[in-house]
Design goal:
About 70% of the residues lie in helices and about 0% in strands. It has helices at about 10-15, 15-35, 40, 50-65, 70-75, 80-85, 90-105, 110-140. Helix 2 (about 15-35) packs across helix 4 (about 50-65), helix 2 (about 15-35) crosses helix 7 (about 90-105) and helix 7 (about 90-105) packs antiparallel against helix 8. It is globular, with a radius of gyration of 15 Å.
């Protein structure tokens, strides 16, 4: 059955609400510690991931149609600009997506939501890569 996502809070609910998103994020960061191809992106994060986990959880809650919790706690964010200072190429983008794919696959989501979510997550991941590339191009 094909469900409609991206409308209202449908994606937020499909992800299990805040608790489901927190579970996804926690697994995402565990996978980042496990996958050899994720070493470079893991090194971009602090050793203690408490704040990173909280930020990603709250961001995804709003991004998926739930309450805009990130901006209430941390203020406004534009994802590409927030990551533009990092050295993100295709390999780093793909490693991030691989970590997320593993985490998504391990959740109890429907197959169509898994596919939808990964397609949607590619967009900010690619925009972060492009912002990083633009910074490098303009610096040199």
């Amino acid at each position: 059955m094909n469900r409609v996502y991206g409308v209202g809070d449908a994606s937020f609910r499909a992800a299990g609400g805040r608790d489901g998103i927190k579970k996804l994020v926690d697994r995402f960061y565990e996978v980042m510690d496990e996958l050899p191809q994720a070493r470079a992106i893991r090194a971009m994060h602090p050793r203690d991931l408490t704040v990173a986990r909280d930020k990603l959880t709250l961001f995804l809650c709003g991004w998926l149609g739930g309450e805009k919790l990130y901006s209430k706690k941390y203020g406004p964010i534009i994802i590409p600009q927030a990551h533009a200072h990092l050295d993100i190429n295709e390999a780093e983008r793909d490693a991030w997506l691989a970590c997320m794919q593993t985490a998504v696959d391990e959740q109890g989501y429907t197959e169509d939501f898994k596919q939808y979510l990964m397609e949607q997550l590619f967009v900010p991941a690619e925009r972060c890569r492009m912002a990083s590339q633009n910074r490098k191009d303009n610096a040199g």
